[in-house]
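User: For documentation purposes, I need each entry recorded in a consistent format: the amino acid sequence on its own, followed directly by the corresponding structure tokens. There are two entries in this batch. Please keep commentary to a minimum and don't merge the entries.

Assistant: Recorded as requested. Entry 1:
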Amino acid sequence: MIKIEHLNKYYNKGNRNEYHVINDISYEFNDKGLYVFFGPSGCGKTTLLNVIGALDKFDSGTITYFEQRLSRYNARYADEFRNKNIGYIFQNYNLLDSKSVEDNIMAILDIIGLTDIDERKNRAKLCLESVGMYKYRKRNVTALSGGQRQRVAIARALAKDPKVILADEPTGNLDSNNTFEIMNIIKSISKDRLVILVSHEKDLVDYYADRIIELKDGVIVNDYENSNVGSIVRKDVRNIYLKDYTKEEYNNEKVSMNIYEDTDKVDAHFDIIFKNGELYIKTSSKSKVHYIDDSSEIKLLDLSEEEFINERNEKESDFSFESFKSSEIKGKGYIGIFKGIKNAFKETKYLKRSKFSRVVLIIIGIVFAFMFSSFSSSISVDKKEYILTPDNVVEVVIKHKDELKGLTIEKLYNDLKTYPGYESMIQSRGYAGHRLNLNIQRFYQTANSGVNYQGNIYLTKNTNMKYKIVEGRDIIANDEVVLSEWIADNILNDVSAVSNGFSGYSDLIGMDADIRSLGDIKTVKIVGVADSKNPSVYINSDSYLEESTTYLFSSEGVYISCVNKEEMIKHIKDLGYSTVSDSIKGAGFRKFKENLEAKMGTVIALLVMITAIIIYLALMIRASLFSKIKEVGILRSIGANKKDVLSMFCGEMFVFTTLTTFISYTVTYLIIFYFNSNFSSQLIKVVNPNLLTYLIGLLVIYLTTELSSLIPVAILLSKTPVEIIKKYDI
């Protein structure tokens, strides 16, 4: 089953204080029986046990686990092997102190990936009953005696249904009677499984071991089959040996009573009352009164103390692994991030951080709210800031490599004049749109604030244009125009328009306006408003103001109006031009880039703050991690893989962040949003809170806190379970 060959391990290898703790050991274990590593302290017993159990590394040699031969320590395989095959019983129990007896059993079932609810309950019940701890299943393990805690540890090891059980000085902290009872259980287990035990107690070893392996200075000096002829003292001061007491009997038809006493100085009076099927007892005795029932640790034995000590009748356990039902086990933990979060909410210990830590995370949330609402104004781009063209416009930019191929604006113009779907072309680089001047004063009182809109527009021929008139009518004459809703809304939102009583599209119908283009001015009449969301003014093709070809051909980029944008882009690319794009997308990206460059200081400050927070939180969590080192060491030693432990910490940090940073961030963001929406202060307008940047900020917060949490944990998990335990003295 397990075979070690020429195994070596050193402490401080290569240094002056080098110690050869495992020295060229070879051995082969059968698939069942109780093997005991015996020897004085420091001889390498526990180290050898840890190496065999994949808790620690080795320097050379090989270990064969069920036909899998390893010549070096493989962390991934070690995790998998411990998870599936090894049950551990430790001298100091290594129970999870925050959990109940039953939850400690359920924890190991989580680790091995047993998901069947009925089988989980079945295993917990069977294992706890086998060690006499089922009645204490709801009790916290810190409320148990040493013997009881070790029984729970044994039940936990059994619940895995392991092929091998390792026990490191399992009775080292127990009294003689608990030692005897624990060893009886381990002996029973060894009849079905391989048990490897470490002990330095000669009487214990001689009494229980099937095979004894004596070690000295890291070397096996003796190995022999045990004849089991030893003896062991079983005295237990908790028991009452009735044969050592004088006995008096009192009987009548209703009550029988035996009185045992070890002294003649007994002075006690009892009143016994039967009422409604219940028994009431009152005593006037000045002596301390103990009530004994089947759940009491005090046992009444019909033996003398001497008979008990000399009795060699090992108590057989009725536990059998065959009682476990066949059930799918993943072979790896299924704690996962969501179960980690659930456990974190369930167990308040996860939230017991210092007040300083909570205050820091709350402040981080407030700072993030201001930073991300400010960052929002850095990256938010209003379409009205950059859209100068309608949807049917393509932009072409002439690059140097185009010029080398003879591709120019003039050539493009000549190529497109006869192309179906082409409508017009104007210069794009430096283009600020045509100008629509609308100047009217409706009231004497507003003579000095008449509507004088001079917004950018894009003149669009109404040929083949599909739009719907929402106010007024369509174009009939050459001096008439139809405004898009985009243009009409901009006019109506102008302060001067409001002061002159303009309230709707109907107020614009019939008004005269001037259109300026390259110095030319054309007076037109507004006859309608179309349902277009583009900055367009629709005009008859006959009255369209053509751009000077001389001015056009000297440019490096043009806007091209067309019927089908996708087909036009493809056609121009086929002509060989390298830079062809949707004019709106290109303009939007340029505006976004301009905004970002203008507020790069805000972005850099945000990145610096995030980095600083990650470093600070990592150091803070590293400091708080010492309080959880024991739990990490226990989980790793009983079979939890790194993913399980990381999931646990992820869940803890998620909950802690939610109850601190998330709340302060959200509340602050809502306050900023309220002031931004209801007040016009320029100080407030510096920030621009919106849902997108709120969600981005939220994502960054959780990523930042989770990353800060995982860094120190990942560093810890890079060590073997034994290194974690020894380094932090668990």
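Entry 2:
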Amino acid sequence: MREEPRPSLLGHPVCFFPLAVLWMELVYRAFCVDGFWSRGLLFLTLFSLPVGLICGLLCCFWSQTFNRVAARLLMALLTAWFLLQAVYHTIFRTVFSLSLVSMASEALGFYWRDALRGAWRGLPLILLLLVPMVLLCIYLHRDPDALEDQAGWPLLLGCTGWAMAFQLLGGGLTYQLPSNGMQSIREIYRESFDPSVIAANFGLTATLRLDITQMLFGLEQPRQTQPSPAPVTDPEPDAEPDPEPVKPYNILDIDFDKLMSEETDELLLEMHAFFRDREPTKTNAYTGMFAGKNLIFLTGEGFWRYAVHETYTPTLYKLSHEGFVFENFYNPLWWKSTTDGEYAACTSLIPSGAVRSFKTSGGNSMPFCLGNQMKKLGYPTTAWHNHTWDYYNRDVSHPNMGYEYSGLGHGLEVKPSWPESDLEMMEVVVPQLLAGEQPFHAYFMTVSGHMNYNFRDNAMSGKHYDDVADLDMSTEAKAYIACNMELDLALQYLLEELEKAGELENTVICLSGDHYPYGMDPATWTELAGQELDPNFEIYHSTLILWSGDMKEPVVVDKPCESLDILPTLSNLFGLEYDSRLLMGQDILSDAPGLVIFSNKSFLTELGRYNSKTDKFTPNEGVEVPEGYVSEVYREVKDLFRHSVNILEQDYYGKLGF
């Protein structure tokens, strides 16, 4: 009797694996990427098929046993990568990159519940991603003789040839496809690495490949995108400034021309020319306004404008309405969330997507950080964090910024919990500050506002459960307000102790968040805001507190600004010696036009907003946009991204002699 042929896995592994990878790519795209039907669909297909073909071939070379093991192992690894991305996106609304691996291992002990909740919220996506793995397991179980044949040369050459053809076609099209807006496909693919943008344009398997490539070899260096204007060598002051500033511009005496004449490295030559020719910010009526005062600078964990409530967080409300009032302040989310948000605010540098910027900066010269600046003036400078002392390598980065740094388990004793109490930290630290030498500068990284926002896993939310019980809100929204009440009490205690010591009018308080509360359900953002928020821009709209005890009335500023602008603004207010050309942000109170930069190179100005996901600029209502304006600003944004990373990688401040 004629033997019936065994059923095969869609004919062969070299058919199954490409279809499996493509399936998972399309499922992820449908759930996690805005705009399913776009050019990214073409590149996703072209770049995922070679991965599937190679995986399929690797299941055909060996004995039957090894082929079956290879098929299970490769499918498990592919599935794990997609599942990791699915859960990560559910929690953080972005893409996981390999540079986060060590951070993830540090955080796992604290955030495993968040991962489980993310998996539960993304269950439909997860189940669909598991389909290929389940089908493979069923097939191998039902057919013990499957995958017994070894690949011959025709199959090997044919699959390799098709894999190379698809890869070369995809790579070639990155050069050839025209751009209808600011970003070219080539730029996205070869000159920058924003995991979310890469995944949206090329898929997750291409993201992994490009992630490995940039970690091993770096990115392709683009040519300078901005023509060099006339150098600013001897700027003239404005006629009759009122009041007359000590100097016309916030610049230092750096002889870039001499540096260029002595330099042979092309990248450093380009950097010298860029910073020499960059327009500095002018001094103004606020220059030196806070000179000689105490400075307390805080980065608030998860602090967002909707944590400010007249009834439940009255101190935050007072400080945000009685000092400088920045109506258009934005707090972008960078690639490595808290540590990158803190880095941007403390250094006025755009973080790198490839490395932990704060950790890397720990070996560099960082002359413009407030700790180093204030220390030069004779201030005692301390930094404090009420969570683990060396978490995110703050034991490396913060002393390098000029601080005597203490954290939980090393110089700061507060009750361990999750999260820890900001109020307890202030109760320990403030008496030390007031008993010591003055004026002083202290920096705080808080933790009470950390997710998860519920009353079971968040000790600070649980502490204030009764205080928010009457709020007509969801549990998550109430828990977010509740944990920020601890930050509010910490600031209330700070103000009370400053007043008792007679230092309230001699103290400046600055507070911004590290990022918006990304761990929330998007419905809770809508609930807190009272309206649906644009996920590309308005989700980042936040509050910057900049308050001094001697300010008699608020100063309202409506210029667009962001966390990168904090350091130069404070430097100008305190009359510090700094060079505005060497920072990526700008003094908000200067006459420089406002610019807000986001991690995917979207930007926002007084004239409108550019969305890099759609590659479109939307003017503000009633505004006329000059010809060439958008491309000019986009070139500036690209240059700031590039040279900010170069400052970090080249230790550029050190090379300037600081």
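Summary note for entry 2:
The CA atoms of residues 560 and 594 lie 5 Å apart.
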